[in-house]
Specification:
The structure holds two protein chains of two kinds. By secondary structure, chain A is α+β, with helices and mostly antiparallel strands. In chain A, 27% of the residues lie in helices and 26% in strands. In chain A, 45% of the residues are buried. Chain B has two domains: 268 residues, Aminopeptidase (3-Layer(aba) Sandwich); 54 residues, no CATH class. The chains are: A alpha+beta, B alpha/beta.
Chain lengths: 291, 335
């Protein structure tokens, strides 16, 4: 089972005040990056463009003028008059980032929701490659829901499919301005292989050997506790499933300007396809513990 | 002879879209200058670019041909072409540049203290990707695209492309009772610099700065009445009386109000306070120029997405055109 979540973080209308919409976050949204962002308000019948507004200091609590303005004091303006807003928009309507994706030089894409559409693309590439490759194993590709809430979709899909092996494909932190620690990886230097309690060590070893044989660059990503991916759910589904986590480095995760190098998506897709094609019919019996 | 009346329709909105989407950070106004020149040249008696990059357009009135009539009043109209933006100042490798904008640590990697602090301006970076080509000294601006939504416009640089678009329409429909001296100026956002030399060159009898002023007509945090709104959307053009750059000429303020009332055009008085327009520089040129500012109210100026109402723009153009038609030499001899 390949799992790439298709949901993204966003916002929700929590209150309507005159022609302005108060908002709350869905998933881990950084309130510091919200002011001035273009958004789309998803109403029952149409999608309305809007902008997130941070009121000027004169309209805020005195102490908020210097600090981060709480999301409860931000709002969305959709440019419509109060009567129109009242008739079109309902509390609970979802709000997504509205900035359009930008193609930059050097096969780089910047935009919102690359967490985790980059992985959805990688899994799609994998499936395409498998069309012309013989493989013994059945493959389920799951585009899961509600990962950003609590891996909700991965729990239910893994339970229904009961796979022998599970691979979560997600994004990880690329090095960039302000991000240079042990938990960050080079943009454009290949996917990362998760290593830690969420990952079956035998699968980690298999992927490393495969990547080295194919000369596909990768980095090992230490995951000392949680992988923070669908892998967390799949590993503990039913009797337990051997799980692996493959990640694509992106910059500025959970902002509307996430950045990915297309080469890394292609590498991830190819690695997955090669791994699946390499599985012998009795591979499952070779998964052992080197104790 | 019926005078041509300016209107705001599809063509004018299209032109505003082109103007807003163009990039013209102070000192780098070329893209907007090109559009302005293309638009006004067929209508102008004279159109030139001065030493600073201002576009100076003259549209003469008819008075000169009738020796019994007094010489037309020389009216300078001003709208600045530049917008706020950024300049790259240092190269840090890997496509990352100091100064400004998009680069921040993901929320997951930020500690709880960092999440409470507003990121300092100095900590921001522009990232064009490891293979991008740019160098310190290059300008940058918001990448927002123009949108027309219901009664509103959402775009970057409404301040002051809406003034530029208004002035283009006034040049195209110039009343014949005045000499219309249109200055599309540079460097307003860095200290009203273009307007100073434009006013010197034109040496006008009076001047009107056309700009966009903030509308803070949004809810206050505690739900109490917001009495510091500056201007409000939907109430028409904002006439200035006093700000940190100028005390507007009371005769011109009264004249604009009278015109609006006579023609049944809605208007509002911008709340007196800080801020300023090119009028501040024009007023102090040579031996002094009577000035007034008129603005289209706009929310969220100097951010990636501003918002204004098409109706306010229409009424601003209407008021200015009506006022120009009514100008006579007597206007400035009154007290």
């Amino acid at each position: 089972m390949l799992a790439a979540h298709m949901d993204a973080i966003g916002l929700m209308v929590s209150q309507i005040e005159d022609c302005f919409l108060r908002i709350t976050s869905v998933g881990d949204v950084d309130p510091r990056i919200l002011p001035g962002q273009a958004v789309i308000v998803h109403t029952k019948n149409e999608n309305l463009p809007g902008v997130i507004v941070m009121p000027p200091p004169r309209l805020l609590l005195p102490e908020e003028g210097t600090g981060v303005v709480d999301i409860s004091h931000l709002f969305v303006d959709v440019g419509l008059l109060p009567s129109k807003v009242a008739s079109l928009i309902r509390i609970g309507d979802l709000v997504s980032f509205g900035a359009e994706a930008v193609e930059m030089s050097g096969e780089i894409v910047s935009g919102h929701s690359l967490d985790n559409r980059a992985s959805v693309a990688a899994v799609t590439l994998c499936i395409q490659e498998l069309q012309s490759k013989s493989h013994n194993w059945d493959v389920w590709a799951a585009a899961t829901v509600q990962e950003e809430i609590d891996y909700v979709g991965a729990y239910t899909s893994a339970f229904q499919l009961r796979p022998d092996l599970a691979i979560a494909i997600d994004v990880t932190f690329a090095k960039g301005p302000g991000a240079s620690g042990w938990d960050t990886f080079d943009l454009g230097k290949g996917p990362t292989f998760g290593h830690g309690p969420n990952i079956h060590p035998f699968l980690f070893k298999q992927f490393k050997e495969l990547a080295e044989r194919l000369e596909i660059p990768y980095e090992t990503e230490p995951m000392p506790t949680s992988s923070g991916t669908d892998g967390m759910a799949m590993q503990i589904t039913a009797e337990g499933i051997p799980t692996f986590v493959l990640s694509i480095p992106i910059r500025y995760m959970h902002t509307p300007v996430e950045m990915v190098m297309l080469k890394d998506i292609q590498r991830a897709g190819r690695l997955l396809a090669e791994f699946i094609a390499s599985l012998d019919p009795d591979f499952i019996n070779t998964i052992t513990w080197d104790d | 002879m019926p005078l041509s009346q300016p209107i705001i329709g599809k063509a004018q909105l299209k032109l505003l879209e082109k103007l807003c989407n163009a990039c013209a950070v102070s000192g780098d106004e070329g893209q907007v200058r090109k559009i302005v020149l293309e638009e006004v040249k067929p209508y102008a008696d004279d159109a030139k670019v001065d030493a600073m990059g201002n576009v100076l357009v003259t549209k003469n009135g008819n008075g000169k041909n009738h020796h019994r009539m007094p010489a037309p009043v020389r009216v300078m109209l001003d709208a600045h072409m530049d917008e706020v933006g950024f300049m790259l100042v240092s190269e840090e490798g890997d496509g990352v540049f100091g100064f400004q904008a998009v680069g921040m640590k993901p929320i997951h990697l930020a500690n709880s203290d960092e999440l409470k602090r507003k990121p300092s301006f100095e900590s921001l970076r522009i990232d064009i990707g490891p293979n991008g080509k740019a160098k310190p000294g290059d300008w940058a601006t918001f990448a927002t695209k123009f949108k027309h939504v219901g009664p509103s416009i959402m775009a970057k640089a409404i301040d002051d492309r809406i003034g530029v678009a208004t002035l283009i329409e006034l040049v195209k429909n110039a009343p014949s009772n005045i000499d219309l001296l249109a200055a599309f100026t540079v460097q307003e956002e860095v200290g009203l610099r273009g307007a100073k030399v434009a006013a010197y060159a034109f040496d006008p009898d009076l001047a009107i700065a056309i700009d966009s002023t903030p509308a803070y007509d949004i809810p206050k945090h505690d739900g109490t009445e917001n009495i510091v709104y500056n201007t409000r959307l939907g109430l028409g053009p904002a006439i200035y009386v006093f700000n940190s750059a100028t005390i507007d000429d009371p005769r011109l303020v009264r004249f604009l109000k009278d015109t609006a009332e006579a023609k049944d055009i809605p208007y509002q008085i911008r709340q007196p306070g800080g801020g300023g327009t090119d009028a501040g520089a024009i007023q102090r040129t040579r031996t002094g120029v009577p000035v007034v500012s008129v603005s289209v109210p706009g929310r969220y100026a100097h951010t990636p997405i501003g918002l204004c109402r098409v109706d306010d723009w229409k009424n601003t153009l209407k008021l200015l055109h009506a006022a120009l038609e009514r100008i006579t030499p007597k206007l400035l001899t009154e007290n």
